[in-house]
Each structure stands twice: as structure tokens, then as C-alpha cells.
Amino acid sequence: MSQSLGALLEALRSRRPLIHCITNPISINDCANLILAAGGRPIMAEHPGEVAEITATAAALAVNLGNITDVRMESMVLAGQAAREAGVPMVLDCVGVGCSSLRRRYAQDYLARIKPQVAKGNLSELLCLSGARQGMSGVDADGSDRLEGQTLSALREFSRRQGAVLLASGPVDGVFAPDGRRWEIRNGHSMMSRLTGTGCMLNVLTAAFLTVGEPEKAAVAAAAMLGICGERAARESRGPGSLRAALLDAAYTLTPEELDHEAAVRPFEKG
Question: What predicted TM-score, i.e. pTM, was given to this entire model?
């Protein structure tokens, strides 16, 4: 990668871009605060009557299928169409596509019609969306799914078909570009799975980095930064409550130099 991850963080904090997030009420506060801590400005509008107008003035759009409603489904399409027309980059978080045919059909249609630059989900969700896996129980990734062998091939092919970068979250995060490049990010901590909304936070952080970098680099930067923040937060937390506060503090205090130094990013081995 020609530009350092730290340079992206420095640019993000310098520009303070407006990030429009249509996310779920479970994580909306944490998502807004993470964007602020990272250096951006959040707006969390979801009324169908205003989302297109607001998206057109934003620097990036993040949409999320968690806790889905009819209104939010309508708003995400309207916002996505406005983003395409205005050239605003966007991220789709495919929450729950493995446990609901409604969400799976919606996500497949959204990818085909709206064409977001990045599709994000946990590994099991993206495998379900690609057709390489049949169903899930709930929204948590199946521990038997691993970023290896046929899984890597399935996601590489899915990224190529969709023409979108895939960001697969898990114990090891994976980023897949349509041209076949694949990156693994080994930052993070197991305690992060005990706090709801960390996947949603990764989604909006990716949108923030889309304002200063290409989709592939933005996804890698977001995964590395949130993982590093999780590592730091876990070292000083007693449980999920203190982890939540420490995670935001870590995002606020992380320097570009520290992001470059601590990011555990490398290309995937052949497989």
C-alpha cells in the first residue's frame, strides 16, 4: 500500500468530514461517538423525507441492516441512490443476512442496484451473502468459519462479481478487493465480542476513512485502527462497561504514527 494508514488518519482529522450514518438504535450512540473520536462529524438521519438531501451534503454514507424496519429500509435505498448520483462513497453493513431471508434479499438487491464501494459483515454473514454458506443462528459469526482455503476463494470471487471491496470481521479481519488483492488484519481483542455494536462501529469508521482513501485502503485502515483501540482498551478494562469508554478514548488518543507502528496487516498467503 503506497500511502500509510497513519497518513489516512491524519487526513481524516484534518478534514473533519461529515459522515451520514443510517444505523440501528442499538449502536447509534457509539457509532456517532466513534466518528467524533476518530476526527469526523456524524449525522444520524433516517427519515425518508430528508435522507437524500442530507446524503448529498455528506462526505460518505454508512448504512446498516441491524434491527431493520420498513422505514429504515426505504431510507437506505433513497440515501444510497442519492450517494450514487452525488458521487458520495458508501458502505453497506450486512448485519443478519444469514439469519433472515428478508435481509439477505435486501442486501443482494442493494449491492446490485446501489453498488456501494464496500460491503462489510462478519465472515459468516458474507459467506451467506455470497452463497457459500447456508444460514446462521443469530447475528454472531460461526466459530467454525475461517479465513482459509475455500473461504478465501469464495470471498475473492464474490468481491470480483460485485465489484466491491469486502470487509470480513472476526478474530482475524479480511479485506478483499475486486482485482484479487487480499489482506489480513490481526489486530483486536476477544473482549470486543462482549460489547454489542463493535461491528457497527467498524462500519462507520470505514465510511470515515472512505473520505480520505480508496475503498481497499479505507477498509484496512478501519479494521486496523479499531482493532488497535480494542487491544488498548482491553488492557485497562475490567469488563464490557469500562471497555466501551476505553475504546472511545483509545480512538481519540491514537496517533497516526502509532497506527502505522501497531497495525498488524499483511497480504494473505495463497489459498
Answer: 0.94
42 touches 204 (CB < 8 A)? yes
> For position 270, what pLDDT does the model report?
54
- pLDDT class of 109 with cuts at 50, 70, 90: very high
Residue 169 β-bridge partners: 122
Q: Above 90 in pLDDT, residue 72? A: yes
What are the cell numbers at 112? 446490485
Mean pLDDT of the chain: 92
* Beta bridge partner(s), residue 20: 43, 61
How far apart CA 117 and CA 230 sit, in angstroms, is 25
